Amino acid sequence: MTKVKRYITVFIYIISVLSIKAQEGEKAYRFLDLPTSTRANALGGTNVSVIENDISLVFQNPAALGKEMNMNANVSFMSYIADIKVGSAIFGKSIRDMNAFAIGVSYLDYGDFKETTENNEELGGFSAKDIVVNGMYSHMLSNRLRGGVTAKFISSSYADYTSTAIGFDVGLSYYNEDREFSAGLVLKNIGSQLSSYNDKRIGLPWDVNVGLSKKLRNIPVRFSLTGVYLTQWDFSRIDEANGIDSSDDGFVKTLFKHTIIGVDIIPSQNFWIAVGFNPKVHYDLKLQEGNKFGGFNAGAGIKIQKFSVGFSFAKYHPSATSYHFTLGVDISKF
Fold first, then answer.
1. Assuming Cys at both sites, which of 28, 64, 103, 206 could form a disulfide with 202, CB separation 3.0 to 4.6 Å?
2. What NCBIfam families does its record include (predicted)?
């Protein structure tokens, strides 16, 4: 059996085992699902198949990491909801032609809060934060197939309550340059808590994502289709916990909620525009009286010499629009 076949066999085995054990119970560290790439955010929030020299996409799929990202760095910032802020930073380095590694960090800051008694007497203040430190590694399995893994150390601190966890992402990325077709498969957030907020341990928000991207011949337009929430079919139990009634969803609507659709226009290697649609977010916000644009994302980016800038916006809550900015730099060009 070749090395590629062994890798894929192990990958399928992991999916099978985890799918059997998957449960719809309570999950911690939901911030791990938030996008840290403006490009992925513009394409609907999740994309594991797009192939670009954009190191922020490695947060989505560790197999997106390649030698072309040698000495590349990226920082991002997103105003999420109210005073809640999301940020990330990543740096990559190639190891010869077959391997690459990256280190990254992302965080969610809920802001500062007043601590009071039940009689509204102020006792002081406290903060709440989530942070994850990532180590990524990728290896070329063939001319068109690459594998990657991300190891995560996760820490949460909410006033006097703290929690830590270890998690992993495992990914595959296929790219046929001649056909301008790419595909990706990622097992996300495989792991467990090391310490919990109380005596009850909660699982990580593990998921399986699969995606396809195809650029049209002679037209600078690329379509992407991403499958999400593939560890479960029915959303009713989770939606009920969030005050959403999806008990009447039929087969077609439920299937639609498991997809994300993205389109990007790439007139040159130095400029892109993208739009995306996330049906699950759209229906959830519609039921919560969010505006009709919920679930629709958009963004654009430009590259000037050694620098790249990206911007995207999306609506993840009925009362707020999230704005996302990234700045990338190719340090090797200095």
1. 28
2. PorV_fam (NF033709), T9SS_PorQ (NF033711)
Count CB atoms within 10 A of the CB of residue 104: 23
Largest interatomic CA distance in the chain:
70
Q: Are 275 and 296 in contact (CB under 8 A)?
A: yes
Contact in structure between 100 and 55 (CB atoms under 8 Å): no
Parent domain of 169: 1-333
For residue 187, how many other CB atoms are within 10 A of its CB? 21
DSSP string, 13-44: HHHHHHHHH---S-BS-GGGGS---HHHHHTT
pLDDT in tens, 192-230: 899 988 777 778 888 999 999 999 998 999 999 999 999
Enter the DSSP assignment of 48. S
CATH number at residue 218: 2.40.160
The domain tally of the chain equals 1
For residue 80, give the nearest of 52, 50, 45, 105 by alpha carbon.
45
Distance, first Cα to last Cα, the chain: 44
* Residues facing residue 125 across a β-bridge: 114
Alpha helices in 126-266 (DSSP H): 236-241, 251-257
pLDDT at position 82, please? 79
SS3 at position 299 = strand
Query: CA separation (Å) from 206 to 31, 90, 132, 232?
Result: 12, 22, 15, 11
Distance from C-alpha of 39 to C-alpha of 325, rounded to nearest angstrom: 10
3-state secondary structure of 107: strand
**102-122 pLDDT, tens digit each:** 999 999 998 887 777 777 777
Q: Which residues in the chain land under pLDDT 70? A: 1-27, 237-247, 287-291
